[in-house]
């Protein structure tokens, strides 16, 4: 696909599908049900991705939904796949201690990806041709620090 600087996005239906499918493949490994794509969350995530591109900064939206952010820069940006951002977030699994479940800033992207109680997802992507921001938004939000929530929502593989 050609990069359109007019629309400021590389996102198309195949990006969304791959983004959701990659989430669901990882979730399946951890005993979490599949997420469904929400157009409301996609609109919100797209609006936030556009904002991040305009301010050239990584910052959470404070919308009350769960949120993962991804950033990349290249002098020759090719098509970003939906899998790349999700793989980056999931790679934090190596730092998660399942025997001491809880929030850790090094693993928060991973735990949101597999958070069992999250049901819906939206994605936004914005680029200027060199910089790209991907925003994933989740409802209900994950990473809830109430007692017992991580044990119930972030399961080891094979459960």
Automatic annotation (TrEMBL):
One Pfam family hit: CAP
Domain SCP residue range list: 14-146
GO cellular component: extracellular region
Annotated family: Belongs to the CRISP family.
Name assigned to this protein: SCP domain-containing protein
Species of origin: Aldrovandia affinis
């Amino acid at each position: 696909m050609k990069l359109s600087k007019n629309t400021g996005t590389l996102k198309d239906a195949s990006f969304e599908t791959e983004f959701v499918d990659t989430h669901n493949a990882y979730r399946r490994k951890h005993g979490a049900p599949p997420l469904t794509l929400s157009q409301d969350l996609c609109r919100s995530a797209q609006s936030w991705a556009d904002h991040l591109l305009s301010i050239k900064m990584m910052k959470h939206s404070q919308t009350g939904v769960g949120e993962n952010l991804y950033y990349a820069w290249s002098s020759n940006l090719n098509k970003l796949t939906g899998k790349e951002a999700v793989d980056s977030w999931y790679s934090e699994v190596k730092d998660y201690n399942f025997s001491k479940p809880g929030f850790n800033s090094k693993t928060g992207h991973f735990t949101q990806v597999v958070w069992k109680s999250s049901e819906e997802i939206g994605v936004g992507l914005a680029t200027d041709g060199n910089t790209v921001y991907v925003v994933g938004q989740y409802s209900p939000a994950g990473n809830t620090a109430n007692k017992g929530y991580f044990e119930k929502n972030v399961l080891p593989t094979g459960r």
